[in-house]
């Protein structure tokens, strides 16, 4: 296994200890909640309560300026914090709020930052993301939701789909077309929309892994002029491309507890293979299973190494090739490996893996749930699209 430890000073070691002590005390045991793929009131309440405790320590916006609810700490401290959250299997922070925060930090006005960042930093305010539409997923530049100026207000009309956690959110960042004459991506702007504004209706969209995304309808929703984030007609490069190409997060990369789930799942399946006997011997001694586990381990280590590479690039300022290469390579690899990984784990554990609860459920049914979630790797853009960005923006190949 790859071994990498960034905390080589007493201060950083102490910081890691502080994070661990917090998690030991505050992370409810056995909390496996995932906001994309779980949907129950008690789960959501416990999840949000945990993140409000993290927010109370100002650790959500750890690296942001203190003025906006952060602590102004370093990227390496954030890396260590997230590494420990991943190791302790803490549920991921709702990433949409973090993406909005990154957009605000880079493109927001001072007033917008003061208004929105403290709520995200404290864990009090949740955000949804209104980018995809029923006819515009991968081809996002074809979106048809529109906004026009009426006096000093923007008026928003259209429909968004697949909004993760939007039914739990108070705000949504929405991409809309603001110049009916301009083609494709050159006419798109981003708006910060309060979800209790008149004219908004939301309907649930249930996914096959027990979670919920949402359809959101905007009917003549009036937004004050300062709802616009960034420049008018420039959201494609300023906001959206934060997901598709250049990372928007100023303090640099960090390990993602969500993706660390794959490491933890592999550990669980390996223990299962050590403890379970099949035809008189541990499953772990079966040559086919050993081969499958070796392939999984190889993929998991590749993902981990890609994280370390992106971290090292940020710290040293050295990158191999233009930035979209590292980011999109990592995303494309992960998005393709994830369902393959989950499928192979199901094959190793066998038909019993399908049992979700009760005494016969293997790994408490967690693998089965994980498997159902793995086929929804479209969130944030499909691997084919990541490959395309890699080819065009990263390698400069023609479309
Ligand atoms: C769990 C989940 C959560 C999500 N959360 C949000 C959210 O919060 N907010 C939001 O706005 N959206 C969200 N999405 C939507 C997500 O961004 C889209 O699913 C994604 O962009 C793909 O769009 P699509 O589903 O319409 O698939 P399509 O664009 O219809 O693609 C279908 C298939 O065709 C392939 N394809 C399409 N075009 C090309 C091409 N040019 N070259 C090669 N292959 C191509 C795709 O790779 C894919 O395999 C979420 C999706 C999921 C699954």
SSE blueprint and pairings:
Elements: H1 10-26, H2 41-56, H3 75-87, H4 95-107, H5 110-122, E1 127-130, E2 146-150, E3 153-160, E4 171-177, E5 188-194, E6 200-206, E7 212-224, E8 228-229, H6 235-244, H7 257-275, E9 277-278, E10 281-282, H8 287-316, H9 323-349, H10 366-374, H11 383-394
Parallel strand pairs: 1-4
Antiparallel strand pairs: 2-3, 3-7, 4-5, 5-8, 6-7, 9-10
Helix pairs in contact: 1-3, 3-7, 4-5, 7-8, 7-9, 8-9, 9-10, 9-11
Flavin-adenine dinucleotide (FAD) is lined by residues 36, 129-132, 137-138, 162-164, 207, 213, 376, 378-382, 384-385, 388.
CATH level-1 class of the largest domain: Mainly Alpha
Q: What is the terminal separation in angstroms?
A: 38 Å
Number of strands: 10
Mean pLDDT metric: 88
Radius of gyration: 22 Å
Give the neighbour order of strands across the main sheet.
Answer: 1-4-5-8
Q: What's the CATH H-level superfamily name of the largest domain? A: Butyryl-CoA Dehydrogenase, subunit A, domain 3
Small ligands present: flavin-adenine dinucleotide
Shape: globular
